[in-house]
Amino acid sequence: MAKVHFFLKEPGITFRFLVPLLVLCHVFYGMVDLGGYSLFECKKLLFLDFESPNSSGEDILLRKRQISISTAGGVGGSRAIRVDYLGIERGSERVVAAISLKKRANEMSLCYDVLFPEGFKFVKGGKLHGLGPSLPVTGGKPVFPSGWSARVGFRPKGGISTYIYDQEKKTRYGITRTAPKFVFKPGHYHSVSLHVKLNNPAREKNGFVHLYVDGREVVRSENVRFRSSVDKDSLIGMFLFNTFHGGSSIEYAPRTKGGKFTRESAYFDNIGIYEGKNVRPEPLAGDSSTTTTE
């Protein structure tokens, strides 16, 4: 470790090696990782790794009967949560929760690691997690000036997409943009990063949603007008834990060849929300928190 020397002079104080001192301060007061990439704790607004499930966010998720702890199902054999998808007439049972963040901002990133087991029935697709304001718009409901949402979707055969409710949508439901080449590899953990920046001012279409998998950008949704009112209620302030098949018809439901509804499962680990841009290059092993940040 580098040594830092202090020299005092009257009437002022001169600090030798000021820059190394500042670096050391960041290390001791919040830098998560120094190996290759770095992320300061002050940017982290939520992190759930399920190793010690005692935070309010984890408690909220574990109240859902479709969610349980998997003691060895996480990245590298760590703890994670398992979500059970129970087929119903309109897809699968909705597994949704909204967790308030400790700060609101114009720009945030959501990162999480996900594994779909071998044989998972993606059917016609469904929803994955995202971000929203204090009152997000989902489920085909009409938007209002401060209401919007930005989520991820899984697609047929394991594809991935962005799924956005904004002020410009022309149909009842949100706008989907599918990655042209990516598909989830069953039985393999992937790291999903969703980077959202709101439009500002309210009249401009300059917001965006960028979607990454394992550090590689797969979808760019540009020129988005999320909000028509710039106020605190329109800021990003909510983690939307949303995952289910659908859609709103039986064609989205996981079923056997005989038409009987099935139970599918997926695993989620290392859910993190950060202020600004954060892209996770790979699933996090152990207690690592490696991300790239701008």
Describe the 3D structure.
The structure is a single chain. The protein has 294 residues and is mainly beta. The protein has one domain (43-293): Jelly Rolls (Sandwich), CATH 2.60.120. The chain has helices at residues 18-28, 56-62, and strands spanning 6-8, 13-15, 44-48, 67-70, 80-88, 91-92, 95-105, 107-115, 126-132, 149-154, 160-165, 175-178, 190-197, 207-213, 216-224, 236-245, 263-275, 278-279, 292-293. The strands form 4 sheets. Strands 3, 4, 5, 6, 8, 13, 14, 15 and 17 form a 9-stranded antiparallel beta sheet that branches. A 6-stranded antiparallel beta sheet has the order 7-16-9-10-11-12. A two-stranded antiparallel ribbon has the order 1-2. The longest helix is centred in the N-terminal third of the chain and has 11 residues, at 18-28. It is globular and about 50 Å long. The two termini are 26 Å apart.
Spell out the blueprint of helices and strands:
Layout: E1 6-8, E2 13-15, H1 18-28, E3 44-48, H2 56-62, E4 67-70, E5 80-88, E6 91-92, E7 95-105, E8 107-115, E9 126-132, E10 149-154, E11 160-165, E12 175-178, E13 190-197, E14 207-213, E15 216-224, E16 236-245, E17 263-275, E18 278-279, E19 292-293
Antiparallel strand pairs: 1-2, 3-17, 4-5, 5-6, 5-17, 7-16, 8-13, 8-17, 9-10, 9-16, 10-11, 11-12, 13-14, 14-15, 18-19
